[in-house]
Amino acid sequence: MFTLFFRGALLYVVMIVTMRALGKRQLGEFEPYELAMTILLADLISSPMESVSTPLLHGLLPVAAMFVVHGFITLASLKWDRFRALVSGKPALVINRGVINQRELDRLCLSLSDLLEGLRGAGFLDPAEVGTAIVEANGAITAFPASGERPPKASELAVDPGYEGLPLALITGGRVQPHNLSMTGRSRQWLEGLLTGRGFSAGQVFLASLDTRGRMTLQLAGGEVLRFQAISIEEVCW
Hints:
By secondary structure, the protein is of the alpha+beta class. Helix content is about 40%, strand content about 20%. The protein has eight helices and nine strands.
């Protein structure tokens, strides 16, 4: 029984390490060769996990071989566009200038219902609002509004909104995040003093985030939300 437990735990760790080594994209949308790799990985590891009579190497060696082959395919795809098109396919333009390309939908074996579903997923209820839509190589649909339907840009309104970057979560679940706090150039004492001045401690805060306008948003454990100016815009350094 201990042997089964040990083998299962080891193979599980090997699977996690392999998936992490394959890159972030393995956890999102798959290319065709990545999907095949994931399915085969699960099948190869399940066999020695289920049967004690199957040597561990019979599961680990094929995984290592597939990892090497996957690395070769990935590098070749990055270097040669034709090879990438062969193993992954090419993006396909399915809506151009607001007109749906029926022939392209047929070539992709994509029904009109599938296209409309993809457009809804991209945020468009009415296909008449779409100017351009592309089916990416991984099967995802990317859609852009027609020029007359998109919201105006700040530059078109002659408005300068200033720099807008990623807000930093300084406290999550009552725990201070040292790395994010260091990016602001502030100390833990500064953060605790800011909270104490408003009658709170870090343990009472569910989420505290600081945006690039210098505004702090606090959500307390009880659900109350507070917003205030924590630092000036000139002091923002990330």
